[in-house]
Amino acid sequence: MSLTVVGSVAFDALETPFGKRDKLLGGAGTHFALSSSFFTDVRVIGVVGNDFTDAEWDVFKRHNINTDDIERVADGKTFFWRGKYEFDLNVAHTLETQLNVFETFQPKPSEESKNSRLLFLANILPMLQKEVRESSKADFVAMDTMNFWIDSMKDAVIETIKVVDCVIINDAEARQLADEPNIHKAAKKIMEIGGLRALVIKRGEYGAALFTKDAYFAIPAYPLESVFDPTGAGDTFAGGFMGYLASQPTIDEAAMRRAMVYGTVMASFNVEEFGTERVDRLTHSEINQRFSDFKKLTHFEEIPFERATSA
Amino acid sequence: MSLTVVGSVAFDALETPFGKRDKLLGGAGTHFALSSSFFTDVRVIGVVGNDFTDAEWDVFKRHNINTDDIERVADGKTFFWRGKYEFDLNVAHTLETQLNVFETFQPKPSEESKNSRLLFLANILPMLQKEVRESSKADFVAMDTMNFWIDSMKDAVIETIKVVDCVIINDAEARQLADEPNIHKAAKKIMEIGGLRALVIKRGEYGAALFTKDAYFAIPAYPLESVFDPTGAGDTFAGGFMGYLASQPTIDEAAMRRAMVYGTVMASFNVEEFGTERVDRLTHSEINQRFSDFKKLTHFEEIPFERATSA
Q: What pTM value is reported for the model?
């Protein structure tokens, strides 16, 4: 029962219609690790600068997240992103990106990280994802990517896909990767790249879909009237998904379906407050309660129809 | 067990990336009636011109749809719509609209139509919808509408909503009607207009959601690799939904949830071929098979999570 993630650890500054924050703990690696820590033992491979303080380390500590593989650069600053969301929170604008120590990030997995049963390659340069995957002995490896890499180095993205078990991306990325507007045709093309056991497509407020060799599974999103900050929702979903799988003895279709729901549940908490605030103080009973609510809101009975009169 | 629909009966001309048709039987009333005829006895209130031939009447006859309340205007032509879909079938362009006999359409429900247990007001002028509703003794009345009426006569749309039990619209219309981008807040505002027992929000390839006073239910769409013609999908959904409800002794939450799935199933067949072609030759066993497939592709087990180690 262990899981390693390689990805960004960052500071975010945000403006949303509901408020403004100048410095929030963020980054894909952070959101993923925090979410998955509710299900399994997690290690993070990443890099931070000298501006990373005890307040930030404490968030990791509180959730027993192992940070031995987070490199600390004494004369550098942590990756910083400033963004703004419109009233329609689906529309995000990047106002500022300072890569800082992340620009020359070279992951250095320890033996313990290499021995993790599961590995998640968050959105970083595809060549680095491939290196980390190839140094790892993990049984089940999943990856994310983004439009920027698909645009600028699609071949490298595809070479990385070939060495993982699962791809977790959003629907626009799936369409772009497959160059195909129909999401089911796009999924088929991505599954045919080779080696994949599963493809998870995240659709934001519309839910998520799981494609495996023999099955298709789809769920809606958890209904939320108040979304405060969508930053990190995708990584929190991936953290719930991979964290839950890490807790299961067998990674089969049934476990992956439950993992999809746990991912959905974790992401729904993440967006309720800024940054990591909500997930940081989450409890297992809140998670199980929302899973149970989700079961109810998707439940219907199968009763075959018989026409009483002639049709 | 009976259902009446008031709505357009039309000819459509279509161009899609998959082909072109010059004259297809179409219209909201037609798609709705055809779909619901698999579940209940249906009557259509509408109007056609002298260009409506036996070939068209035969489609209604084959499905035992009562057409006594379809007025035939001897010196007029049937409502005609010409449209074009882009490669991404979500993008539709209207190339030509000839309202013809539909322009001065004045619904004249017979006693039999007024005595229907259920009534569906397809997308026509909201004042006409209200008139038909007020002349009807139906127990359960649902309505559709469109962006054009919400834009140009929102008050009239709202007055009609006040006298029906259920609104069935797409998500862009719901956001527009409530002037609210969050779909859950929008739904709450629409439910508060008064009198509504249910609000169904259709989300195309993303599925559909059902809002009732005490519950929320959401389902994904049925997965389709080949969508040929999305025209009429919404009305076919509504036909499956209302037709199934008409077949049930009690219209409760459980029946409405199954009706959502039957609506989804019917719509999924409709888009597989042009116009009414696919639904016209559909069988009950195909419908039940797809319902059963849908149950499988949304199924997951609820197993509360317990962390083995400390979190």
A: 0.95
